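Quick illustration, no need to memorize.
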Amino acid sequence: MTQQDVSEVSVHINDTAVTVEQGTTLLQAARLAGVEIPTLCWAENLTPVNACRLCVVEQEGTRALIPSCSRLCEDGIRVETDSDRVRHSRRMILEFLASTNDLSQSAELQEWAESYQIDLDRYISPEKNNDEVKIEDDLFVRAYDRCVLCYKCVEACGDDAQHSFAIAIAGRGFDARVSTEYEVELPESACVYCGNCVGVCPTNALQFKVEFDLRESDEWRPEDQSTTETICSYCGVGCSLELHTQNNQIFKVTSPSDHSVTSGHLCIKGRFGWQYVHAPKYEPSKKS
């Protein structure tokens, strides 16, 4: 057996044989095979935390459904990604999320909810989360009624990107929230305002203040929006930026998660330091 043979494994995904390198997850193998699996807490630039269980699949010979985002491929295994049992599990998870959270600003979750034909009235208790939006500065807001506890922001703030460890999950059960230490205000915490938590949030629970203001004033118009790629002008690192604009006004800045320099993460200047683009024009005073 050659070294190349040792480093590869073959799995069957929905009766389709896929050969991948060792260390490949089932989710990655499925995508290579053209099979779509829904995800929520997974991101290509973050470590899988297995929190949402939306990506579960059914492996032949196992009792429980397994998370495809973190389970590595093993030679010869067979998995089903869309069996009745899998669909039932995903539908239940989506119904649980919709019963307590506002998912209206998550296009991906809305798409999955429609695909799995969830019953929005199935669970009527507990009542929806109605926490007030936290607005502490002009950079971003925290809307906990949209937070699904996916852990993405916690991971981005911790080992996966910023290493600030300013936030964590506090509380238990229905009282669980993403919080700063001792629930202090953001300026008093270890937060450095890099905005990487905002960049990975899948539900707009963390949102640019400019975008929030546009939505609140009913001026949010996706049909008038565009994205322009450029390079950050603050230093020589070469971070790639995506400027999201509406009527030539920037409302948020992101970076591609597959970019070799940023992996989707930015510093405070790259993420929020674009106001100079819209600086007021200088008008010299008229001499009398």
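Residues 84-100 form the longest helix (17 residues).
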